[in-house]
Amino acid sequence: MKKLRTKFIIFMYENSQKQYRKYFxxxxxxxxxxEDQLLSFKQDSLGRxxxxxxxxxxxxMIPKMENHDVYHLITDCxxxxxxxxxxxxxxxxxxxxxxxxxxxxxxxxxxxxxxxxNYLQAFKKGQQMKTxxxxxxxxxxxxxxxxxxxFIKQKETPVFY
Length: 161
Hints:
With about 160 residues, this protein is an all-alpha fold. The protein contains 8 helices and no strands. The chain starts with a helix and ends in an 8-residue tail after the last helix.
């Protein structure tokens, strides 16, 4: 039964993401780098790690959706269906709001209610992080990934007097 539910979610994603990009991302431009160019970035950079992510998973960049793959890297969420849904909960906790995200939360919770505890933990994790969902990660491809992750995990920037 779980395989059938997983197939259903994948079917819904494959048949909705093109429409989402067409109608909700029309003003956004796609990144100016491709997967091979990302591999030429410095070791341990966000760009290089993203290029390796694509290569290791056999994925291709989806125009105008590149940030989604960066979210996987900075949140340590895998690409299995339940973690994809958990990542959306994390982003919701981080302040991201969109009709598509709300749809994923609703559908994911209905289809996989046994993961609700994990989803709520992801939501809380997102609340505890600096707000990052709106960042332009294309401009940060040269940055060290671990430094970015450490920065994001700090909810409040310490102030020393």
